[in-house]
Amino acid sequence: MLAIVGLVIVIVGCQTVTPPDSFARPMPSTAALPPGLVGVNAVTLTDSATRDRQFDQIAADRFRAVRIQIEWDLIERTPGQFDWGETDSLVNGAASRGLAVLGVLSYAPSWAVPPQYRTLVHPAPADAGPWADFVAQAAKRYSNVIRNWEIWNEPNIDDSFAPGPNLALYSSMLKASYQAIKSVDPQSVVVTGGTSPAVDNPTEMSPVTFVKGLYDNGAGDFFDAVAMHPYSTPELLTTEGTSDTSNSNRAIKDVSELMASEGQGGKQIWFTEFGASTATPGAVAPDLSGQQVGVSPQRQSEILTNGINYLRSLQNGGPIFLFDFRDVETGSRNVEYNYGLVQSDFTAKPALAAVQALLG
C-alpha cells in the first residue's frame, strides 16, 4: 500500500565492495530480532542535514531497531559499478547507535529492467541473475551489521513490482537471495517482502494469494519468516473483516492458516510496516482509491497502541516496525507524508508517548 520514499544520492564515484573498518564489529550471538520488538521505519533519514539528529532521537526514544532500504537502483546504476556511500552512511548511523538494522533489498536499476517497463515506477527486474549478484555483494558488505534481511518491498502490488506481481519471478529472486545471504551468514534471517493490504485483481494480489504462490513455486524453504504490512486506517487492527476485502486482521489470519497448512506454522509473521497518517482527517491518497486516509493525532495513538498489543498477542507474531518515525511534510494533504510519530520539525505527536509506554 505504501511506497517507500527513495534515497536522494549525490554520486561521489564508484567504490569497491570492501566494507569500511567501521563495519568490522562483532556479530551478536543471536541474529533474529525478538518477537514483539517495536522498531521504526525512517524514510526521512535520506535527509543528510537532519540524519544524525534523527538517529539520536530514535535511540533516545528507546527504539531498538530501524528498517533501512538497501536500494539496488541507487547503488549499481551502471552494471558492475557500485556506489555504497549513501547506504554506508545510513547503515553505519544505525549501527553506531546500537540500533539493529532490518535491511530491505529492493528496486531495480533501469539497465536490469525489460525495456518496455523502464518508465514505470519501481519495475521488477528482467530476471533473478543480476539481482542475486547484487544481493551477494550487499550481504558481504554488511555481514557484521545486518543480520535480518527483507527481500523487496510490497512485491504483491504494481506500485512496487511493476507492471504487477509475478510469482514465478519473485520466487526465483527469493530463492537466489536466500542462498546468497545464507552463504555469507548461515544464522541470518531472510524475510519475504512485506505485503501491502490488497485484494486480488489484475494488478495486485491479496497477501494470502501471494504467499500461497510462493509455496506453489517451490519457495517455501527459502524464507525464515513472512512479512506483512497490516495497515488498518481508519479502523483499529482488531476490527475483523472478510476475505474479500483488504482487511488486515483477516489477512493475518488467512496467511497464518495457510502457513500452518503448509507445515510451517512455526514460522513467524514479521510486521515490517504498520502505521496511521495524521494528514488532514478524511484526506485520501487519490492514486490508491481511498485506501489511505488521514486521522486525528489521537486516533493515530489509538490505532498504533491497539495494533501493537494485538500483534504482540499473536502466537506467530514477530517484530513490528512502525511507519514512520518522522513526517516528511507535516500538514501536507499527501497522506504518505504524515505517518510520523513526530512532526517534520521533530515535535512529538501524542502517538510517540503512547508507543513509548509499550516499549518497556
From TrEMBL:
| Keywords from the UniProt entry | Glycosidase, Hydrolase
Q: Which SUPFAM superfamilies match?
A: (Trans)glycosidases
Ranges for domain Glycoside hydrolase family: 39-281
What family name appears in the similarity comment? Belongs to the glycosyl hydrolase 5 (cellulase A) family.
Q: What is this protein called?
A: Cellulase (Glycosyl hydrolase family 5)
What are the protein's GO molecular function terms? hydrolase activity, hydrolyzing O-glycosyl compounds
Keyword Hydrolase present in the record's keywords: the answer is yes
Q: What is the lineage of its organism?
A: Bacteria, Bacillati, Actinomycetota, Actinomycetes, Mycobacteriales
Species of provenance: Mycolicibacterium chlorophenolicum
Q: Which GO terms describe its biological process?
A: polysaccharide catabolic process
Q: Which InterPro entries does the record match to this protein? A: GH, Glyco_hydro_5, Glycosyl_Hydrolase_39
